Amino acid sequence: MRDFALPIRRIGSLGRSTGSALPLEVGVDIHERLQMRLSSEDSSYRSEIPLSLALTGKSYEFKIRGRCDGEFGGDKPMIEEIKSSFGLPALKKALANEPDHPYILQLKMYGFIYSKKKGVTPKLQLRLVDSRTLEEDVWSVDYDEIGFQLWVQDRLAQIEENLLRYRALIKTRKSLAKQLFFPFSTPRKNQSELVDAVKNSLSRGRKLLLQAPTGLGKTAGVLYPSLLEALSKGSPVVYIAPKNSQFKAAIDLARMFQKKRVKLKVLVLTSKTKACQQDEVLCQNSSCPLAVNYYDKVEASGAKLRDAKKHLWDYAYFQKLSDAFEICPYEIGMERIPEADLIICDYNYVFSPRANFFDRYLDPIVPMTKPYLVIDEAHNLYERVIENYSVQIKLSDLKAFLEHCKASDDQRFSRIVNRAIGLMAAINPRPTHARIELKREAIQVLLDESMALLLSRWDTGGLPLIDDPVFQFYSQWSDLHEITEISQEAIPLIYKREEGDEILKAQCIDPHSILQPLYAQFAGVVAFSATLKPFSFYRHMSGFEEEATDAIEFTSPFPRTNKKIMIIPQVETNYRERSRHYDRIAAIISRVASLEKGPYLVFFSSYGFLREVEKLLGEDFPLITQTSALSDSAVRNFHRLIQNAQETTLILAVQGGSLSEGIDFKGAGIKGVFIVGPAVPSASFERKMMQEHFDKREGDGRAFAYVYPAMTRSVQAAGRIVRDEIERGVIVLMDPRFLQDSFQATMPEDWFETSARELIPQHILSETRAFWDVEKRPSIESDEGPLDL
Ligand code: SF4
Predict the structure, then answer these.
(1) Is the CB of residue 564 below 6 angstroms from any atom belonging to ligand 1?
(2) What was the pLDDT predicted at 285?
(3) Domain 180-264+341-389+511-557 belongs to what topology?
């Protein structure tokens, strides 16, 4: 009923997107108490009256169902709906000004069904209740049966129009599928097999985990068959990547289709904070001029806004529309979700606790086909989910709230904050780190009290004051409460003392049970990356079920002889031993790099390690050093510097940083990559919990918590070179751990035949020299003398 009884034209402003879930239970509670009281006061009163009606439109039959809040019987029956609000004056004003307010329409619709079913037209009233004071008011609604019948017909016609439009959209998609073509005249080596593998898994309803290296044309190899499968079923594809800068390959591919007249509608979504040009993202009528009268402005702009010829809807396009019509650019983008054939967006649109993709994609009345999901750079997914589903509350933040209370003499909030501090103080015993259990009721009391305080302060428009510290306090505890409710095993609660602070933290250690149910919303899922080994690890961490998932590895299409991979086990890089090896590391880098002119990338496990070796690299070659995380523009600058390097240049960076993944150095002529030890995560309490968890589950906690995450970084970094068929380069991995089984299990299939031991060189320099000079056979260590290993 609620979905049917909506205004035919949306009017007014954007409003309640505050980022905080409203506590629905408040309204339910008020309803129930009122209904009980009314039954005790009036014997003719009945609550929760089921009402339903079948209606016939031009092309469809409809069944409308609902439960009216109450009926007063007798000769002149009356039905009513109860509506509670935090801002009663604002609600009354809206009811007075909007004859098609959803509350009024809903009530009239009940009246309409009631009179059809019972042959008597009831009186209608809204019982309005102030959620703070419980003060009541009754609002009579005039009802004109004939006039409303016309409204019902119009609404049915509108829904039928939507249904027909959606049917046409499905038809268009199916015909687009027939026009779709493989975008290159000749597929690259193995690319046809890649396309077939995707088609095969999707058509059998299986999920696919796909490891494919650079050079295979994997975006086209995955996206083309995914679009083919999805469009032929009338569905769109949702393509997600961890960074906006990684959307380019998908956008380029879509443009290739569009240029050849395959009119795919492509929507590229950026994050709300990036799309929003306001100083603060406060999507309230009172705060943002682009929210004010949003729907009226959209309606007034009409066809100009819905430029049918445009087929690539991106941030620049939304910004232009926003400037032209003074409307929110983020909202315009979100409204396009149901009509787009290909939606390109960040992981968070699908996988964050507040993800709202499906709120916009699904229509409560029109049955939509399920979209297909393509996850690019999928090795990043599990870490993003761990990050999104871990929240913490610091004692120092609580103390800051107390300071605020003191300054503003806010005794009521001060009592609530003190209760929270007491909750942390009561954790017993008080070790440095511990997994704890906190009574959920104790957190619920904090939530109830802070919500009650918040309600008493909400503005008359019924909206929360987002910058109110009480609101921030409530949001923190509510996030903690909600996240720990998902699974105590996958997201345990911990207490830790760190850097003079005390922290209560919900720490996600296993994202499987969070991700797995989310895939039910998709018709098919493909996750791909150059590093997804071992598959058992990524299958679990990506939330895929073993029995319903295919996992396939493709090897590089370039000749194996274009790469010289060496493992130097004589060099130890673990924290305890590495200082004894700094000289050797510097010597290997310098001497290997001296054998062939060009840029070399040297990836360390940490900045501290980098700085120590940097001091010893001397002045033989220019050094370019990455000193911290880089912005996208800084990465582009680095790229230019590397490309312009004429002589041998060493670029020092860290594994897992912006220069080691997600960047294509194709054409930069990079001659080699040094991986100075695996970047094993440091042994925090959280990591140890993860290790224990996977020891119990998979029997190999160390590999799950330390080895595989580290090796993903090393293999990603190693993949920065040999990006086309003519590039050649050396990869040098330094550390004996690279020979261990769990480390080897992550390496691409074409690195060695049967064991990583094959990669240990007898003579580093002469073998490297021979690699560069294929005519020269390795014989002696080198002209410069043997390396002291
Ligand atoms: S422009 Fe920004 S603040 Fe305004 S409604 Fe849009 S997202 Fe919210």
Answers:
(1) no
(2) 66
(3) Rossmann fold (3.40.50)
